[in-house]
Each structure stands twice: as C-alpha cells, then as structure tokens.
TrEMBL record:
Binds 2 manganese ions per subunit. Presumably involved in the processing and regular turnover of intracellular proteins. Catalyzes the removal of unsubstituted N-terminal amino acids from various peptides. Its EC number is 3.4.11.1, 3.4.11.10. Mn(2+) 1 binds at D240, D317, E319. This is Probable cytosol aminopeptidase. It is an enzyme of class 3 (hydrolase). The lineage of its organism: Bacteria, Pseudomonadati, Bacteroidota, Flavobacteriia, Flavobacteriales. The keyword Zinc does not apply. GO terms for cellular component: cytoplasm. Mn(2+) 2 binds at K235, D240, D258, E319. The keyword DNA damage does not apply.
Amino acid sequence: MIFKHITQLNIHQDVIVPCRKGQLDHLSQYTTIKTPDFDGEFSTVQMLYGAEGNRVYLLGLGEERDAVKIDDAYRKLSFDYKKYWKEPVQIITEGFSDAELRKVVIGLEMSAYNIGTFKSKKEQEGPITFEIVNSQDVTALLEESQAIGATINRIKTLVDAPANQKTPEFLGQWAQASAHDANYTCTVLHKKELEAQGFHAVMAVGQGSVNPPVVIVTQYMPKEGAPVDIGLVGKGITFDTGGLSIKPSTNLHYMKSDMGGAAVVLGVVELVAKLKLNVNVIGVVASAENAVDSNSYRPGDVINSYSGKTIEIIDTDAEGRLVLADGLNYIIKEFHPNQVIDLATLTGSVVQTLGYSAAGMFTNNTEMAQNLSKIGFEINERVWPLPLFADFDSDLDSDIADLRNFSGKPIAGATTAAKFLEAFTEEHPAWMHLDIAGVSFGDSKYAKMKCASGYGVQLMVDYIKSISEN
C-alpha cells in the first residue's frame, strides 16, 4: 500500500466517505443523490457515483462505541473492493482524531495481507495508492501507522506459516534478517550454547524433534548505559504435537500457531526499532518443536531448568510453560529489566474463561495492569485480569522435584500455568503474563480456515510508547 497526504479533494477520483450512524448531512458534498439508501451502520458499504462519474464509497462507522474498531471497517472495505482500484483512492479523514486516523491506515494496510503464500498460482496485485484527505499535516502519523500495519502483516505471515517451513532455526534467521534491516541486535543461541548456559527445560521440550531448539535474544538499546526498560518473552513452539501426551487429531494442524507469542515479541522489537522509540527493549524467544520420538521427554521425568529448579513432568503437552520458564529466568538474571511481560498461546483454559474477546492478564503489579488494560480497551486489543492467588501454589507441589508442570485438575488451568511461570520470575515486582491463546489465532472473515489475527503488536507498542513518554 502507498499512503499520501493531500489537503484538497479531487472530484474526478474515487473517494471513501466515512458516515457515522444517523449523521449523513455531509453526503451532499460528494454525491447528487439526496437520500441514499444508507444509514451508516457499522462496516456497511454503499457504492454510489459522484457528479463526475467517480465512485463514492459510503462507509458506515456506526455509533460512538464502534470507534475503537474502525480499522476493521476500512480493512473489510478494502479487502472487498481493492481488485477494482487501479487509480488512487481518496480517503476523507477530516475531523478524525489521531487514534482514529491511525486505525484507518492500519486497517487499510492489513487488507494487503495475503494468506496464500504457498499457493502455486497467486493473484498478482499491484500496490494501491490511498490519498488521505486532511487539512492537517498528518504525514508522520501515516508513516507510523503504516509501519504498524505492515508489522502486523509480517507476524501474521509467521504464525500462518506451516511448521515444515517454520522451524526454530527459521525463526532465528527471521530475527537476524529483521535486526539487520531495522538496526537492532540479534543473537541466536543454538544447541551447544543452550547446553552450556543451562537452558535445560528448552532442551527437554525440543529433544524429540529433528529440528533443534534455539533461544533468540533481540536487543534495541538506544539509551546507552541506561537500564533495560522492558523485557519481552515469547513462547515459540513452532509445532505442538503434545509430545507423548499427544493431542487429538481434530485440530492438530492448527498447532503451527503455537508460536503466536514469539511472533508478537519479534514483531514488537522490530517495530520499536523502526519507530526509533526512546526506550531500551530486550526480547527473548524460547523456541522448540514439541515432537513425538523415541528421544522425547516423558511424563514422570524430572528435568532441570535455567533457574536451577527441578520440574516433574506430569504432562508433556504443558510444554510452553517450560520454555517460558527458562526464557523468563534468563531475561531477569541476565538483563535485569524494570518490567517483564511474557506472551504465550498457553492454555485452552483461558479460552474457556474469556472466549475469543480478550487475553488473560496475570500480574500482581496494579499499575501495569491498569495501564495495559486502559490501552487494550482503547485499541480493541483487550486484556482481562485473572488471579494469581497463593491458594493455587499447592496445585504444583511435587513429591520428587521442586514443582510439577501440571496440576492435573480440570479447573483453573490458566491460573496454575501462570503460577508455574511465577516460580521462575525471581519474585520480580513488575512481571506480567499474557495468555493470548484465544485472541492470537481463530476464525476470520478474511479466510476460509482459522488464521492469525495479529493481536498484540499494537497493544505492546502502545504500552512501550507510554513507558518512553513517561
């Protein structure tokens, strides 16, 4: 997509006119039809013709409560009509807030995402030019918004990629190429380094796969000599069979998406570097493939971890928390970040609790929780607090190790997973866990099958911007 800022409307060109529900008086400026059969209901479209024969797309933005999701209205319009757009299309944005204009651009950019990467015959689409009509100079905002939309598309491509292409090593190569292009630092720790440094839990999860595990460390540090403002940790399970505690086959093909948290971390560090935010950020991705093999780790095994704590394996399908345990302990001990947030498609339990509407948020830091929750509601990437009560500590007690990786109970699965992670945070006062299993990947109006949503990039970048501004 190409975005240009203009101040004057060209009546000879196609134009997209926003219409809030019940507020249609302005339409006479763009079409000769006095009473179009249109009321501005959210994400509805009416295509008319202007006085010069140009197409006028009336786009419904709904009511005030719909403002947080107008990106989806523009994305849907562009997705449905872009095949007809050969000439520049004008977008009326006069009177929009910066947040609304950003959502317009993000939505339009997201409409360019093509899920059919591996099809032998691809539809050839040339770049579409959008001319943003606004009397204010919004050039910088357009550039930032397009960068956000493009990054969301990049991480969606990662999440939707098949596991035979997207190995842990592939994620490492992706991160190294990104670091080169966006001017930040990336180090990929391979098997020998992982063994030498003590990433025992990561190694255990990955030992049954022909694709060895890696730990990816990305660093964007513009403030030399200053502490790390925030550390991000992502679960990077590139395919999850469940291990010897094997999953049912029904939706097993979707387990390519079990690195959704890693994709967010990789995308956010890249985007923060591209936007040149004045904040020190470290990203750690612990990546492995949880496969079934004669060398796979077993239920009943006791493994070590980066922290030195021993773990009794009850369920090999509770593997994400194992790689996160090593990643969390490593980032805290090695880099001492002021805040730590991990993101993971961790449990089905959080989907049963919150459905597909919000991520589960676990933290004892009230300030972090309030700030992230506020941002989430403002941009429609919501989080919802769930408990870390000490009542659940005993659910992870083990007779033969320091703790076990699964409670075995059919209740509170998301919380007990978070409590497991908490044991490896060295009692960090500003740690947060986000379980994004219900919002990272699912049904979509833009694909026939379940696919990546792109959740988390805007949420984390806006949160990091709030840190840099303060």
